[in-house]
Amino acid sequence: MQPKLKSKVRCTDREVGEVTRVIVDPLSREVSHIVVGRNGAGVPERQIPASTIEAVTDDTVELRAPSSELNQFPVFRRDEYVTIHEVEIAHLEDHLHVQPGEVLVPLPELERNVKRRTFFTNLTHAIGALIALPLVYPVLRYVMKPMYAPFDNRWLKIGNVNRIKADDVGVQFKFKKTVKEAFMPEAEVDKNVWVLKASPPVLEEVYKSKDMEFRDHTGGVIWTNKRDVPYVAYSGKCPHLGCGYKWRNVPKLGRQIFLCPCHLSIYDASGKVLDGPAPRPLDPVPIRVATNGDIEIIDVEYKAGTKVQTRIV
Amino acid sequence: MNSQPSLLEKVFAFVDERVGLKTIQAKMLNEPVPGGSRWAYVFGSCLLFIFIMQAVTGILLMFYYVPSADHAYASTQYIIHEVDYGWFLLSYHFWGSSAMVVMVFTHMSQVFLWGAYKKPREMVWLVGLALFGLVMAFGFTGYLLPWDQRAYWATTVGVEIMDKTPVVGDFIARFLKGGPTPGQMTLSRFFVIHVMILPAALMGLAGLHLFLFRKAGPAGPFQGSVEELKAKTDYFFPRQVWKDVVAMAAVFFTICSLAFIEPVQLLEEATPDPGDYHPEPEWYFLFLFQMLRLKIFSGEFGQFLAGVAIPNAFLLLLAALPFIDRNPERNIFKRPIALVGWIVVMAGILIFTVSAIINREFLD
Questions:
Q1: CB burial of residue A228 (10 Å; 0-12, 13-18, 19+)
Q2: Tell me: the pLDDT tens digits for A88-125?
Q3: Do A243 and B161 lie within an 8 Å CB cutoff?
Q4: Which domains, from first to last, does chain A contain?
Q5: Domain locations in chain B?
Q6: Residue of A nearest to B280 (CA)
Q7: Among positive and negative, which fits the CA dihedral A124, A127, A133, A135?
Q8: CB–CB contact A243 B274 (8 Å)
């Protein structure tokens, strides 16, 4: 039991006064001292350590010391302490019960005997859910509006084959693509593909003796790259994580390769992964070459980082 | 002696009577710091300071910045080249974000090494981890906004990495991009996340973090007897506040110096053709970037491992830490696994970051 304020303080021989204050240790959060105020004017309050307390009852504190020794305890100095209202010590008041009794406020008339308290709690939650739930679907649709755009199957003119001087050498064709995004004015973005005039072995490596079909979101075939057409166009997007790769001469390898500067994926002219983290070869896109040598492509884009191609644009 | 109270004193008394200012002030400042104030405790306060400055500079940047694909770049260039001190505010904001990341790592390391995540401070630690996530999200969403090549490509790659999350990856990636490829919708989304959602979340969680911290009380040093601690204990004010303020000033002048020495310069405007630019993320994501270059993280599964599984598993481990490590011992020199673990993680991040930087010259 903790000593209470206003409790009578008894020494071994007689009653000496009452508990005027209680001092708490900020680290252990236990009562460390009581302050004893004695009867009579001008008698200083003494600060008595908790170890001197013999027993605590409801309204008295019994000390181990005789009243004659009381003056050996230090005089209480108020300016060396602050009240617990002026300081923040975690969990200080959790197990302190030093007040002489409780401080109360009346429970309002209407709050007595309220039945169905649980019902009211649940009703509050139910109304909250009633407001929130119907919003889920509209909000989801609202934010999802632009997320699944249809594929863009336009043919784009990107240049002429007369730029390609040698077989099996990657040539970058930059082109402008007009995009019309939602409310925005029509804008042009820079894009690029790598075009290759492939020698028969490289062409075989790309097509594996099969024509290459390109599909719409419905699964319908929109174009077929014939395996005997020597021009191959690779999407400019690295199949690893979507950076832009380059055609580089690497003296150490004694050959030219496609190198992505981001995560150092390396591909040969047929798009095959030679080294690095890429999960699949470069992505050929639909290409058609007019009789005058003009190249057109469909700017197909696949999701990066997957083993199989998943078309997203 | 009994002079009349001045007008200021009257106003203060009026407010105090209604709000209880004196009690609030006393409660805020009179918090015993077990074992006394230390320089090691300044990092949390520094984080709060950096965040406030990011909010101030961020709001100022929005006076001119326009989050649209056709104006973001131009308006940022305008801030840098035309608006008086625009370059400084933008550079401060830029370097402030780096300072925030450095300080978060320092703060977390201090808490970890001091064993301050242990009972009864588990909740403080958990909310702190969530705040760490928010800081990284701030960095990620923030550097798309200038809409230059660095911005565009870091976002492209970053979102592709999130796409590797099982089941929800595709949805998350499309949700963030607002479509299949980065564009205006991406910029709008990153903007609203950066200037509205993350600040609101950070303010709420930082408030909760502080509340929980005050509720649990400061942990104090990890060694020393009760008597020693008690003898050295002082209040938050003035000694700790003084140390905090000096540290904040040091942070402020460091960020200012960096803004002066190395002001922000934009690359070319964002476009899906990288040209001669070699995409690279902000330095604090470099270790992750370098990790993704490793052969063991090649292929679809490897990417999932390095980009999604390992970072998330690491965060999960940190979250579980106070529940796994129930030993009340806080002295780091008596916790060999914790010490070695910390050194390994820090060394790993350092090695990957440095090798990413070394790799740069081989690309040119």
A1: exposed
A2: 888 888 878 888 878 889 888 888 887 888 999 999 99
A3: no
A4: 1-116 (2.30.30.240), 155-298 (2.102.10.10)
A5: 29-217+230-276
A6: A262
A7: negative
A8: yes
